[in-house]
C-alpha cells in the first residue's frame, strides 16, 4: 500500500518535476497604436475549491504570437487531478494588479491532460466562455530528471572472516555530499561466504553521484550482525568512471581496506571487491511512457454479491442516497477522473460479479453491466455511473465473491498486448468489493500469473468488513505466492479501505493510485521496452 496515511494524505506521494512552456497565437489586439503586450498567469486549483496564482511569465512587448521564455516548473502527481488555468493578459502598466489589465483569454485543463499528450493546443476563452477571437494557447510539458541508472554486478573475493570461519557480508554504496556521505544503496546479505556474489542491482545516477561520473563514491563492506551492530570488513573509494573500466573479458577490482588494520606491518587488504559489470543506461520513467504514447486501459469490476444488502434500503452499500452517491460511486469517480486522462478513447469496460443476471438468472462473475457482451464499454466516467445506476435494479445480488474470473479476463488482453513486444498498452483493473474473497486460491494464482503482464490491480474495499485477505494480496512486505509455491514476479496489487477516506475523494485517489506509476515504468523497463515514441521523435511545437 501507499506510504501516506489518511490523516496526512499525500505525505509520501509519487512526484516528479514537470516544466511547462507556454506559447500563444492570434491573440486579441487590445492596444490602439501598437499590439498587445501579453503575459500569462498560471493558476492552480486547491483542495479548498479555490484558485491560487502559481506564477507568471514575462511580459512580451507588442506581440500577438508570443513564445514565453519564463517557464513553470510544477510538481506532477499521477494520483491527483491537478486542475490548472492559464490566463493571458495585455499589460498596460507596471502594476502587479491584474484587475486593471485587458483580459485576452483563458484555458483550463488538468496537468494529466498535458503530460499524456506532451503538448496541447486549445482555444482561449473569455469569461463568458465565448472564443477570444482566434486566440489559442499551446502548453508543452517536459519532465525534469536525470533518468540514467548504473546497473551493477558485484562480487567479493577473500573477504576477512569476522565470526569463526565465515562472514555474512553486504555492501553499502554512498554518495559524497557537501557535509557527509549519503547512503545510496544497500545490497542483500550473503550468508556464510567469504567469496560472495550479490544479486544484480541498479542505482540511479542522481542518488549515486549526482550524475557526475568523476564524483567520489564510497563502498563499505560489512559483516552482518543480527543485533544491528554490523562489523566493518573494509571500504573502498572510487568513482563511477573507474568502476566502468571493466570489460566483458575482465572486471574492475578494488582492494577493500580497513583503516584500523593499516598499522599492522603485514596487512595488505581485507579482501577484494570485484565490479563485474557497471553499465550506465537510461531507465525510462512513467512520464516517458505516457508522453511516448503508452495507453492506460482501465477496466472496472463491481461487487454485486448479497452481502452488500438490499439496494432499496439505506443500510445497503449499493443504496444511492438522495444526493446520488454511495461508496461504489464515490470510488468510481475518485479513481476514474484521474485515469481517464491517460486513455485517449475514454471508453471503459465495466463488469459485475456475484449477481444473478437476466434472462437466465444464473450467477455470473463476469457480466457487462450494460448487458452487452459484444460491447461492454461505457463512454467516460459519466457513462460508467449511468450504466451502474441502470444495472442495479435489473440484477439480483447473490454470491459468492470470486475475483479470479475478472482478473483472468483483463489478463487475457494484457497478454495479447505483451506479445506485441511494445510499451504501447498497460492494463489497470479496479475491483470495488465489500467482503471476503471466496476463491482465494484461484485469485492468488491469477494475480501471480498477471504479475508477468503489463497489468496492475487496484482493490477498493467498501463497508466495514474484515479486509485482512485483501491486505494479504497487497504484498508490500513479501511477494505473493500461489498455493503451489510459485512467487509473483512483482507486486501488482494495491488495496485501500474506503472507510479511511470517507468524504475525501482526493486523498482516496492519491492512495489508490500512488504505486501505479512505478508499476508501469518498472514493468516496461524490466522487459527493456522503450516508449513507442522516444523524445527525439516528438515534433516541436509550431
Descriptive overview:
- Helix 5 crosses helix 10 (505-513) and helix 7 (404-419) runs parallel beside helix 8.
- The protein has 542 residues and is an alpha+beta fold.
- Mean pLDDT is 87; it is low at 1-13 and 538-542.
- It has 3 domains: 16-144, C2 domain (Immunoglobulin-like), CATH 2.60.40; 148-282, C2 domain (Immunoglobulin-like), CATH 2.60.40; 298-526, von Willebrand factor, type A domain (Rossmann fold, 3-Layer(aba) Sandwich).
- The protein is flat.
- The strands form 6 sheets. Strands 17, 18, 21, 22, 24, 25 and 26 form a 7-stranded mixed β-sheet that branches. A 4-stranded antiparallel β-sheet has the order 4-1-8-7, with helices on one face.
- The protein contains 11 helices and 26 strands.
Describe the secondary-structure layout.
Elements (H helix, E strand, L loop, with lengths): L15 E10 L12 E8 L5 E6 L15 E5 L6 E8 L11 E9 H7 L1 E7 L5 E14 L3 E10 L11 E8 L4 E6 L14 E4 H5 L6 E8 L7 E9 H4 L8 E4 L16 E11 L3 H6 L3 E9 L23 H13 L7 E7 L1 E3 L4 E3 L2 E2 L8 E3 H12 L4 E2 L6 H16 L5 E9 L6 H11 L4 E7 L6 H6 L19 E5 L7 H9 L2 H11 L16
Parallel strand pairs: 17-18, 17-24, 24-25, 25-26
Antiparallel strand pairs: 1-4, 1-8, 2-3, 2-5, 5-6, 7-8, 9-12, 9-16, 10-11, 10-13, 13-14, 15-16, 18-21, 18-22, 19-20, 19-23
Amino acid at each position: 500500500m501507499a506510504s501516506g496515511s489518511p490523516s496526512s494524505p499525500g505525505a509520501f506521494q509519487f512526484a516528479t518535476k514537470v516544466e511547462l512552456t507556454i506559447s500563444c497565437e492570434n491573440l486579441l489586439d487590445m492596444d490602439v497604436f501598437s499590439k498587445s503586450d501579453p503575459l500569462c498567469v498560471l493558476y492552480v486549483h486547491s483542495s479548498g475549491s479555490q484558485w491560487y496564482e502559481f506564477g507568471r511569465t514575462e511580459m512580451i512587448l507588442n506581440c500577438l504570437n508570443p513564445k514565453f521564455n519564463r517557464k513553470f516548473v510544477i510538481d506532477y502527481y499521477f494520483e491527483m487531478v491537478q486542475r490548472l488555468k492559464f490566463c493571458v493578459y495585455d499589460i498596460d502598466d507596471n502594476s502587479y494588479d491584474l484587475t486593471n489589465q485587458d483580459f485576452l483569454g483563458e484555458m483550463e485543463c488538468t496537468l494529466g491532460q498535458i503530460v499524456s499528450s506532451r503538448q496541447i493546443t486549445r482555444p482561449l476563452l473569455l469569461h463568458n466562455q465565448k472564443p477570444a477571437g482566434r486566440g489559442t494557447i499551446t502548453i508543452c510539458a517536459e519532465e525534469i530528471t536525470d533518468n540514467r541508472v548504473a546497473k551493477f554486478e558485484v562480487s567479493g573475493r577473500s573477504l576477512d572472516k569476522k565470526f569463526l570461519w565465515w562472514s555474512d557480508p553486504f555492501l553499502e554504496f554512498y554518495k559524497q555530499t557537501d557535509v557527509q556521505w549519503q547512503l545510496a544503496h544497500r545490497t542483500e546479505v550473503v550468508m556464510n561466504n567469504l567469496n560472495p556474489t550479490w544479486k544484480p542491482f541498479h542505482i540511479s545516477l542522481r542518488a549515486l553521484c549526482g550524475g557526475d561520473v568523476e564524483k567520489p563514491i564510497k563502498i563499505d563492506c560489512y559483516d552482518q550482525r543480527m543485533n544491528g551492530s554490523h562489523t566493518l570488513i573494509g571500504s573502498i573509494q572510487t568513482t563511477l568512471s573507474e568502476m566502468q573500466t571493466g570489460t566483458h573479458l575482465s572486471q574492475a577490482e578494488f582492494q577493500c581496506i580497513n583503516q584500523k588494520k593499516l598499522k599492522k606491518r603485514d596487512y595488505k587488504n581485507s579482501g577484494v571487491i570485484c565490479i563485474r559489470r557497471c553499465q550506465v543506461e537510461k531507465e525510462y520513467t512513467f512520464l516517458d511512457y505516457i508522453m511516448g504514447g503508452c495507453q492506460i486501459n482501465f477496466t472496472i469490476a463491481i461487487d454485486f454479491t448479497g452481502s452488500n444488502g438490499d439496494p432499496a434500503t439505506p443500510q445497503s452499500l449499493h443504496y444511492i442516497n438522495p444526493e446520488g452517491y454511495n461508496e461504489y460511486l464515490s470510488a468510481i469517480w475518485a479513481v476514474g477522473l484521474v485515469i481517464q486522462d491517460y486513455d485517449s478513447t475514454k471508453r471503459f469496460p465495466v463488469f459485475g460479479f456475484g449477481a444473478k443476471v437476466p434472462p437466465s438468472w444464473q450467477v455470473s462473475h463476469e457480466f457487462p453491466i450494460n448487458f452487452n457482451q459484444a460491447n461492454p464499454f461505457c463512454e467516460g466516467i459519466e457513462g460508467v455511473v449511468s450504466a451502474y445506476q441502470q444495472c442495479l435494479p435489473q440484477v439480483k445480488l447473490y454470491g459468492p465473491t470470486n475475483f479470479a474470473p475478472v482478473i483472468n479476463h483483463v489478463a487475457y488482453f494484457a497478454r495479447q498486448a505483451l506479445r506485441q513486444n511494445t510499451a504501447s498498452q498497460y492494463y489497470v483493473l479496479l475491483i470495488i468489493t465489500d467482503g471476503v474473497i471466496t476463491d482465494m486460491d484461484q485469485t492468488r494464482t491469477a494475480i501471480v500469473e498477471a504479475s508477468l503482464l503489463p497489468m496492475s490491480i487496484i482493490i477498493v474495499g467498501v463497508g466495514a468488513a474484515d479486509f485482512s485477505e485483501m491486505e494479504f494480496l497487497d504484498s508490500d512486505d513479501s511477494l505473493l505466492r500461489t498455493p503451489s509455491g510459485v512467487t509473483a514476479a512483482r507486486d501488482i496489487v494495491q488495496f485501500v479501505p474506503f472507510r479511511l477516506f470517507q468524504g475525501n475523494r482526493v486523498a482516496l485517489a492519491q492512495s489508490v493510485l500512488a504505486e501505479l506509476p512505478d508499476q508501469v515504468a518498472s514493468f516496461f523497463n524490466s522487459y527493456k521496452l522503450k516508449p513507442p515514441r522516444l523524445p527525439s521523435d516528438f515534433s516541436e511545437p509550431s
